[in-house]
Amino acid sequence: MRPASMRIRRPTGLLMALLLCLVAGCSASWPRDTSGSLDAATGGTLRVGVSVNPPWVTRAPNGGVSGSEARLVRGYARTIDADIRWRVGSESVLAEEIRDGELDVVIGGLTSKSPWTDKMALTRPYRTVTAPDGSSVKMVMGAPLGENALLVSLEKYLAEHGAR
C-alpha cells in the first residue's frame, strides 16, 4: 500500500497538468479579435479616422492627410500590407464611428486624458511631449474597444517607431 502523501500528489499533479493544458489552449487565441479588424485590414484596407490637429495631423492643399501621426499610420499600414481609407471628422464623430465598428484607428493628437474612452480604446502612450504650459503630455491613438489583435499590433509598431 502506498503512503498517503503519494496518493495525494498524483491527483494534484494530474490536476495541475490539466490546468496547464487549459491555460495554454486559452492563450493560443489571445489577443482575441472578435470583430476581425486586423484580419480585415491585413492585405486590405485600414480605416483611419482623422481629426485635424497640427502638427499631429494636417490637411494638404490637395486634400491629402499629413503630419507626424499620419506618417506613423502609413508606416504601420505598410507592415500589414494595407491600403488606407482616411475619414476626416471631429473627434466626437470619429469616436462614435469607431465605437460602431466603422473605423479601425483614430488619430489627431489624442492624449492619454482623452474624454472618448467610453467609445474607443487608447493605445499605450507612444510618445511624451511637452505642452506649451510645460506639462508632460502622453500621445496615444484610438482603436476599437475590447482586446483585439489590431490594437496589440498597432501598439507594437508604435513602441518601435512612435518616439521618433
TrEMBL record:
Q: Which Pfam families match?
A: SBP_bac_3
Task: Please state the span of the N-terminal signal peptide per the UniProt entry.
Answer: 1-28
Determine the domain of life of the protein's source: Bacteria
Q: What PROSITE patterns is this protein classified in?
A: PROKAR_LIPOPROTEIN
Asked if the keyword Signal belongs to this entry, the reply reads: yes
* Ranges annotated as spanning the membrane: none
**Keyword line:** Signal
Q: Where is the Solute-binding protein family 3/N-terminal domain?
A: 46-128
Against InterPro entries, the record matches this protein to: Solute-binding_3/MltF_N (IPR001638)
Under what name is this protein listed? Solute-binding protein family 3/N-terminal domain-containing protein
